[in-house]
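re: ur msg from earlier - yeah i can do the copper (II) ion complex, just paste it... oh wait u already did. ok heres what im feeding in:
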Amino acid sequence: MKRREFMQTSTMLTAAAALLPASLLSTTAVAANAQKFPAPLKPIIDGDVKEFHLFIDVHQQEIVPGFKIHTLAFNNQVPGPEIRVKRGDKVRVIFKNKTELNHTIHWHGMHVPWRMDGVPYVTQMPVMPGQEFVYEFLAEPQGTHFYHCHWGTLLHMQAGMYGSLIVEEDDDPIRKQFPYEREYTLLYSAHDVNFLREEMNSMLERMKERMYLMKNGRFNKERFAVFNTKDEFVQAVKDGYQPPYLVNRRAPDELPVPNWFTVNGKSYPMTPNLFIKEKENIRVRLINAGTEEHYLHLHGHDFWQVADDGLPVPQPWQRNTLRLSPGKTLDIIIEGKNRGIWTFHDHDTRRVTNNGLYPGGNLLALVYEDLPAKETELNMMAKKMGLKNLPIVALDE
Ligand SMILES: [Cu+2]
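and the outut:
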């Protein structure tokens, strides 16, 4: 092979490694991809109230083919179903706990009455195994928000207890400035799967013990580490009470170090893709439901950042990399101005790996679905390999 041809080939293959094939641009591919975004949960209309039913149960989530993790999932899906309402709607969420662990739901970014805020021992008692809790609030303010469990949050959130909560506004200033037809919601998370497994098992053991003590009338405040006041707690320690963080943790020694990074519950190559057409605007709602800071970079475009924590920014600004901190939501508008297939990924490259191997993690692609087939033609080397299009998946250490 001539040197020049070889160099072209190797460049092509490297570029292809992260990309998608023309065959994925078909209508069926677009429909299959649509399944990778959380579908809105249908409310029951009760007078002027929109009533949603959420339950929590243990669920096996396949992050990539051949690799499943145990999760705590709302309605058997990670992320949980999307709750999509209009600003000012009266919302009721009936939450049923089908697991053997405690949970609550916190409405992140929402102006709910304080007793609906879902923080155990601060605004409500935890929702215990088999119990139900009814959350009621007005949908306020507008924008991209999310919900998540607030019990054992470090474990429960990375175990999958999160979902998007979108509050639409009739007179949306963002839609006015950047008319769009299609939008996508991306929920980012990070998972230390060893921590998940060990901590989930150890939590279930602790729960069994608690249930036994409760049934036999041997439950007491110290055993549950529950006190009425801080003074009561401080006094108990003075009197010899040893809080769980001193003696009874029975959890992994260290804080979790995530080794899997997901978008909508999937890692590359199973991550969702953002489909776009030339001259089209798409809105992308980014939600960080995980513990890691993500530096999201889009190739080949400058997008508009239009909302921050759900609120429209006073002046949309253009950029191609943004910082998505834990708990943050950001909305961007991508203009279809540069046809092709472009990656959108964390520039902290530790997070575009699966168990340490690149490519993986939260890598995904912006795909022009009207891309002419001619432009995805392969070079000789690829043809010799028997490839018909850009490969669907290229995983290479
Ligand atoms: Cu929980």
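cool cool. The helical segments are 3-17, 27-34, 153-158, 173-177, 193-215, 230-238, 244-247, 380-384. ping me if u need the other ligands too
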